[in-house]
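Fill in residues.
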């Protein structure tokens, strides 16, 4: 989330919305938002099993309430343009590559 936060202004200027999802409690999520000084909204208290079932996100084998990091780029119609699923600490969307993908997609639609 920090990577996208550092690029927040660039996403804003391009008219691209960014938000995060968390299964943590509201209090834990608010603390994380404060600690990382996140500029974008983060939804909290989501049901890990339900999110995993609907999206295919990997659930931690040690803790079934912990979801591995995943990222999505949605098209204006709500369909998925890109999905990145991580099974650990490696394999996440990067803000610069995400922005390049979106800009390319937008220019191709034109």
């Amino acid at each position: 989330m920090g990577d996208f936060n550092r690029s927040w202004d660039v996403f804003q200027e391009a008219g691209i919305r960014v938000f995060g999802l968390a299964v943590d409690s509201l209090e834990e999520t608010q603390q994380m938002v404060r600690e990382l000084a996140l500029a974008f909204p983060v939804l909290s208290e989501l049901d890990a099993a339900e999110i995993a079932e609907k999206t295919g996100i990997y659930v931690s084998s040690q803790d079934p309430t912990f979801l591995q990091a995943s990222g999505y780029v949605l098209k204006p119609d709500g369909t998925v343009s890109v999905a990145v699923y991580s099974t650990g600490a490696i394999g996440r969307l990067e803000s610069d590559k995400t922005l390049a993908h979106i800009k390319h997609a937008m220019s191709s639609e034109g």
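Residues 57 and 63 are 14 Å apart (CA to CA).
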